[in-house]
Automatic annotation (TrEMBL):
Organism domain of life: Eukaryota
Protein name: Acyltransferase 3 domain-containing protein
Keywords: Membrane, Transmembrane, Transmembrane helix
InterPro entries: O2_lipid_transport_reg
Organism: Aromia moschata
Length: 333
């Protein structure tokens, strides 16, 4: 946007946020309605009160925080659909990014300084919070990454930068999570500041490699049609999967003696049922609502682009007229 000179005004910000809100919220709302009504009546078990009824009560109490995407701050202990904390955080960061883009768009000469300040501030805030509150480290298991570059040296750099950085962070976490190891405040602060950002940088390098048509088998897997189909239902699967896990835990009537085989069969069963439920949720709600959203948003998008184009044209005409007057003035002088 900065390179092409396009405007990022208030109307564009509102349009972008509404577009995202309409795309995400209906599916979340359907799942909240299900967990606050029908879920509690779908079975009984020794742990049903702890795993299912508690979720039922939480959803009836704090459902509105999910719809406003503030559930990671309000009613944190009584959170409904606890997995949606990430959607709330991501939505808040999305809104913040729109504000930053708007400020950078109005001050293109200071755009680099604005972006750099945002990155540095994010590192300082994460590290400071972890240091002063003495937080333990956190590591998430993200999917493996893909390739970058065309020459062989680029392939080597891709492996080092993508997988290398991610594995490096995981190995550090493995050491710090050892029962005999106690991390200091400074170590935790450094990990909180740089760990997730280095991991994200590795993922970004991997994704960039895919866009450059590099990646061999990894790129083939990512471009496989079956994977793309699963990708379309991933959001609905993400929203519904915890309800299935809660039901399984609530039904359990005897202790589970964990070994590799039981862990494998349980995981495969949870994944299969989650994708099956996600398919139903996606076909019945997410896709129809997405189609309606495109119809509703099309007119809004057209109006916003028209207004932005008209403003750009007026600005260009003003500059031309101003430059013409300056030339006439110089000639007279």
């Amino acid at each position: 946007m900065l390179e092409t000179g396009k405007r990022v005004n208030l109307k564009y910000m509102i349009f972008a946020f509404i577009n995202r809100y309409i795309r995400l919220t209906p599916t979340v709302a359907v799942m909240i309605a299900f967990e606050s009504t029908w879920l509690v009546h779908m079975g009984k078990g020794p742990q049903w009160e702890d795993f299912v009824v508690r979720e039922y009560k939480n959803c009836r109490q704090s459902w509105w925080t999910n719809l406003l995407y503030i559930n990671n701050y309000v009613y944190k202990k009584e959170m409904c659909l606890h997995q949606t904390w990430y959607i709330a955080a991501d939505t808040q960061l999305f809104a913040l990014s729109l504000i930053i883009l708007t400020v950078a768009g109005k001050n293109p000469s200071r755009a680099k300084a604005i972006f750099a300040s945002g990155i540095i501030l994010g590192l300082i805030v994460q590290g400071g919070v972890a240091f002063f509150r003495n937080y333990d480290i956190i590591i998430r298991q993200y999917p493996d990454l893909i390739l970058w570059g065309i020459p062989k040296i680029h392939h080597i750099l891709w492996w080092l930068l993508s997988f290398g950085m991610c594995i490096f962070i995981i190995l550090i976490a493995a050491k710090m999570y050892a029962p005999s190891y106690h991390s200091s405040r400074l170590e935790s602060a450094l990990y909180w500041s740089f760990g997730k950002n280095i991991f994200a940088l590795g993922i970004a390098v991997g994704i960039f490699g895919i866009t450059q048509k590099i990646g061999w088998f990894a790129r083939w897997v990512c471009e496989w049609q079956a994977i793309q189909i699963l990708g379309r239902i991933t959001f609905s699967t993400y929203i519904i999967h915890t309800a299935l896990i809660r039901m399984r835990a609530g039904y359990m009537r005897s202790p589970l003696f964990l070994n590799d085989f039981i862990l494998l069969t349980t995981t495969v069963g949870d994944v299969a049922l989650s994708y099956l439920g996600g398919t139903v949720l996606c076909l019945c709600f997410e896709m129809p609502i997405s189609a309606l959203q495109k119809l509703m948003v099309f007119d809004m998008d057209t109006k916003v682009k028209k207004e932005v184009t008209e403003k750009d044209m007026k600005t260009m005409d003003f500059k031309k007229n101003t430059s013409g007057k300056e030339q006439i003035l110089c000639t007279n002088v």
